[in-house]
Design brief:
Layout: E1 6-8, H1 19-23, H2 26-32, H3 34-42, E2 44-48, H4 54-63, E3 68-72, H5 97-108, E4 113-118, H6 126-130, E5 135-138, H7 143-156, E6 159-163, E7 175-182, H8 192-203, E8 210-216, H9 241-262, E9 284-287, E10 290-293, H10 315-320
Parallel strand pairs: 2-3, 2-5, 3-4, 5-6, 6-8
Antiparallel strand pairs: 1-4, 7-8, 9-10
């Protein structure tokens, strides 16, 4: 029988802008600019699978200011998840992953809109569960279901970030990201899961289209003892948090790139990351979260003291370092 997805009602987003809210994503804004942050706040991202990789992807997107996330997974937190999944704690064992993770993300950003869908994505429900969305993250384990997610996204013209296998990998530096790559090259890096995906795409006669792929070219390491292959809930390759988390961070970066690239043209283009001031005030510039009056900076100074020519060090350098502290709520301590 067809499963009925259970969608937990999201907590109403916070509408009041407090002093704290003004600072929550200030660091990210200083990388990408106000226009980009506005685009991320409007964005809708669906994450299919919130396990070892998908949970970290959701965490990074929430901390990047993405305003709307839909979390899709039928699993509950198991004790064997504690080695690699961000929401797996002693206190969350036995609870639905999507609801546990949703609560965590709302605690990161109370203003964001989070939907929790208690179901697995497959051919019968992909249209219902994944859309509407601006980007879909495919962190599904099975090649058949991955193929149906990719097929649905291509049919709708929705951008998709496809995750390869993180199991059996120990070197996070081997992770690669290929954006807007032809799906016929979905066997990137010799990844076994993506190879299986390519076979499924051929079976569906799906040969044209593009997607972003996150994968590792590292050869998976099998369990050292054959008896370990059938222990616990996870009957496959071993896993490491520093690899699954790195996969998730790479996927989140790919999502942000896609979202900001897609927002170009709608508002005249999103400016590239810049160290220029985000404030319109000409008399101030930002430095490491503080503001220094522009007239206290030597006209040609664009570097730190370590790179300053010998004749510019000393009093001028000290003057540059005399920052005026901003009114950050975190620094409001009583003497």
């Amino acid at each position: 029988p067809a499963r009925e997805a259970l969608v937990f009602a999201p907590a109403p987003p916070t509408t009041t802008t407090t002093t704290t809210e003004r600072w929550r994503f200030d660091g990210t804004e200083r990388l990408y600019g106000a226009a980009s942050m506005a685009a991320l706040a409007r964005a809708r991202v669906a994450i299919c699978g919130v396990g070892g990789v998908g949970s970290w992807t959701a965490e990074a997107l929430a901390r990047s200011g993405v305003g709307h996330l839909r979390l899709i997974d039928l699993d509950e937190v198991c004790v064997s998840n504690c080695n690699r999944q961000v929401h797996a704690l002693e206190s969350t064992i036995g609870r639905p992953k999507v609801s546990v993770l949703a609560a965590r993300l709302r605690d990161i950003n109370p203003s964001m809109h989070v939907e929790s869908v208690l179901d697995f994505v497959d051919a019968s429900n992909v249209e219902e569960l994944c859309f509407p969305a601006d980007v879909v993250v495919d962190a599904v384990d099975g090649a058949t279901d991955k193929a149906h997610v990719l097929k649905a996204c291509l049919a709708r013209g929705v951008k998709v970030v496809v995750l390869g296998g993180a199991g059996g990998k120990t070197d996070p530096t081997r992770i690669q990201v290929k954006t807007n790559a032809p799906i016929k090259n979905s066997h990137l890096g010799g990844d076994r899961l993506l190879k299986a995906l390519r076979r499924e795409l051929r079976r569906l006669d799906l040969r044209e289209g593009h997607a972003s792929f996150v994968f590792s070219d590292e050869t998976p390491r099998p369990p050292p003892d054959a008896s370990l292959r059938r222990s616990g809930c996870d009957q496959a390759f071993g896993t490491a948090a520093f690899v699954t988390a790195a996969f998730g961070m790479a996927a989140a970066k790919a999502v942000v790139d896609v979202l900001l690239d897609s927002s170009k043209g709608s508002d005249g283009g999103v400016p590239p990351p810049s160290s220029s001031p985000s404030s319109a005030a000409e008399e101030e510039i930002r430095r490491d979260g503080a503001v220094v009056a522009r007239d206290s900076v030597p006209p040609s100074d664009t570097h730190g003291d370590d790179d300053m020519p010998p004749n510019r060090r000393g009093d001028d350098a000290r003057e540059v370092e005399e920052f005026i502290e901003l009114d950050c709520p975190c620094s409001d301590f009583d003497d």
